[in-house]
Amino acid sequence: MSIRYAFGGDEHIFVEIDEAMSLEAFFQTLSLSKAVRESRIAGVSEICPANASLQIRFDPDRIAPDDLLREIRALETAAKRAEPVLRTRIVDIPVFYGDPWTHETMMRFRERHQDPAATDLEYAARVNGFAGVEDFIAAHAGAPWFVSMVGFVAGLPFMYQMVERERQLQVPKYLRPRTDTPKLTIGHGGCFGCIYSVRGAGGYQMFGVTPMPIYDPQQQISYLREFMIFFNPGDIVRFRPIDRAGYDAACDDVAAGRFEPAIRPAVFSLDAFRADPIACNAALLEAGHDA
Amino acid sequence: MTLEVIKPGLATTVQDLGRPGYYHLGIPLSGGMDRYALRAANLLVGNAPGDAVLEAVFLGPELRFTADALIAVTGATLPVKLDGAAQPGWTALAVRAGQTLSFDFLKAGARAYIAIAGGIDVPVVLGSRSTYALGALGGWQGRALAAGDVLPLGTPHAAGREGVSVPEALRRPPGDPAVLRVLPGLYAHRLTEAALRGFFDDEWKVAPEADRIGYRFRGGRPLAFVDRTPPFGAGSDPSNIVDSGYPYGSIQVPGGAEPIVLHRDAVSGGGYFMIGAVISADMDLIGQMQPHQRTRFVAVDMPAALAARRERAERLRALAAALGA
Questions:
Q1: How are the residues of chain B apportioned to helix, strand and coil, as percentages rounded to the nearest 5?
Q2: Which CATH class is domain B178-313?
């Protein structure tokens, strides 16, 4: 991987770690973001890590663009050498796959889909070589996901599944974006999963909904009172399939202020993952399962 | 002291200078799209430059004042009326309790800034009073104004200076064609050399899809891409990249067809290549561009972008000096 730098106008530096997505590129993105943050360079106002790149906003009245570029380049080697171990948390996200609300929405936008005769889940199962929807869901929920970027709109997590490249689930986006997506839809486009934090336009395939709010600008939801956004890049997510009864019960708990997300501390080592991804994921899921 | 909304206009929102610091979580800068006009409106009524004002787009609201107030309207040429009588723009106006502020049809520009001495006193959320409607955050109940809303006003902190106005030379309309200076870069290498030249040679027009998130343009030739094997995770379209951050001002061209310049309520990231970014000094101009406005993108280098930035800072100092602020 050779890092590429580019200016985005006179107020941003864009750093592309790799043009392809991989766990390695994601880890380097996180470590370089951390190195820039910790170096506290005067004039830097925002550091935005994405999947395999980061963006740094700065004030050119306080630091000359070329000086900032030099300072970031100087951090590159240290970031590359950083131990690829992430101390983070694993969060259990209940998912009602094949729910009626995303179903109603997908039916309204069928003419914008590659396969109007199938549901998004049926299509995703087929293009990924699964026998049926059940097997696809088992793969989707069967391995954990990294939150590799938070954005697009407020609090929306992009997620990258922690499996070898040949096991990555890949689905194209809709042919033309929808003008509507239910809030808290579990989506998928390319190799990335997401959770739509708000209702609105979207182009990702829709697999289900979670009852667990992840963005609350009113800060009324018990676990979002301190900060309105739930996710941070580097969080690990495990999807847990639930049925209609489980979904309704969780919604009642959210409304009553009783819902507590299942969160456990977790440590992820890229080297351990490379050596034995299945054992590594099993250990992570075990940690999540205790919750 | 309050302000009653009789008619809301098209999409009138509360805005200040914005909400930096949360873009890494998808919350954009927000704030006035023409921050120069926003600052001018505030200075005219004795406010701090970053107090909250109303941003009206294309169509003005109708507002009733419950107490005497000093107000100013800047930005677009949206003719001002008090109880039906024409009033000058870019000028501090005294309003009496019970009077109604309304507007004639838009003559030029796109966004008017309505400042009231004391500012619009909505709660500060994450350091700003700006509205981010897509996230239902900030401003007045996280949304554009609606008929029947009653907005709280702050206490004026400086003496009124009725009749003061911004000199003509310190107002800056977009021109025709509007010229937006661009620092090429980011993913410009995805285009063929001829396509990159064509982007800057062609004349574009603002499309109807132009809002606080971004401005779309039409009319130039489609852009041709350099051949490649799609990188893993990028998607199959030649304009796709592995989803990355989108800088404020960045120009993406989905499918190589219609450029979109992201503005104050930008989506913070996504999977389309970017040709570069509009320089900071020209972002305010976009806020005053209407659909069908003819536009040229002009490539500049970093020294030119920084020189333009210094000129803009100089104009702000001249504005403050002219208004005795």
A1: 20, 35, 45
A2: mainly beta
A254 φ/ψ sector (left φ>0, alpha ψ -120 to 50, else beta): alpha
A196 contact residues in B (CB cutoff 8 A): none
Chain B within 8 Å of A142 (Cβ-Cβ)?
no
B55-109 tens-digit pLDDT: 999 999 999 999 999 999 999 999 999 999 999 999 999 999 999 999 999 999 9
| Tally of helices (H runs) and strands (E runs) in chain A | 8, 12
Tokens of A162: 């922690």
Specify the pLDDT at position A286: 79
Instruction: Give me the architecture of the A87-289 domain, per CATH.
Output: Beta Barrel (2.40)
Question: Chain A: residue nearest B23 by CA?
Answer: A48
Distance from the first to the final alpha carbon of chain A: 38
Q: For residue B274, what are the contacts with CB-CB under 8 A and spacing of at least 6?
A: A8, B186, B187, B188, B246, B247, B250, B251, B252, B253
Query: Assign residue A13 a region: left if phi > 0, alpha if psi is -120 to 50, beta otherwise?
Result: beta
Q: What is the pLDDT of residue A291?
A: 41
CATH 2.40.100.10 in chain A: give the residue spans.
Answer: 87-289
Q: Return the residue matching tokens 């005053």.
A: B288
* Closest listed residue to residue B78, CA positions, set B54, B99, B95, B102: B102
- Which pair of structure tokens corresponds to residue A28? 């380097």
Assess: ipTM above 0.90.
yes
pLDDT band at B325 (very low <50, low <70, confident <90, very high): confident
Domain with CATH 3.30.1360.40 in chain A: 4-82
Candidates A7, A10, A18; nearest CB to B309: A10
Residues of chain B with Cβ-Cβ distance to A63 below 8 Å are: none
A249 at B interface, C-beta within 8 A? no
Closest chain A C-alpha to B67 CA, distance in angstroms: 30
Tell me which chain B residue has its CA closest to the CA of residue A64. Answer: B306
> Could you report the per-residue pLDDT of A141-169, keeping only the tens digit for each?
999 999 999 999 999 999 999 999 999 99
- Distant-in-sequence, close-in-space partners of A116: CB < 8 Å, separation ≥ 6: A110
CATH of domain A4-82: 3.30.1360.40
CB atoms within 10 A of CB A62: 12
CB nearest B20 (choices: A18, A45, A154):
A45
**Does residue A190 sit at the B interface (CB-CB below 8 Å)?**
yes
Give tens-digit pLDDT for A246-280.
999 999 999 999 999 999 999 999 999 999 999 99
CA gap A107, A271 in Å, rounded: 44
Is the model's pLDDT at A282 over the cut of 70?
yes
